[in-house]
Amino acid sequence: MSAPPGRQGAALAPSAPAVLGEEFREQLLAALGSTLGRLPDDVVVERSAPPRSGSYGAELVTVRPEGEPAVRVFLKDFGECKHEKDGMRARRERELHVYRDLLAHVDLDTPRYLGASWDPSRDHFWLLLEYVEGKPLRHLGFEYWLAAAGWLGRMRAHLPRPDPRSNTHLVEHDASFFAGVARRALPAVCEAFPGHGERVRTILREYDAHIPHLGAQPRYLVHGHYRPNNIVMSHDSGRARLCVTDWEEAALGSPLYDLAYLSDGFDPRRLDELVDAYEAELAKTATASPDRAETLRLIRCLHVHRNLKTLAKADSPGFSEKGVEKLVSRSEEIVRGLA
Question: What is the CA 96 to chain-centroid distance, rounded?
Answer without folding.
Answer: 14
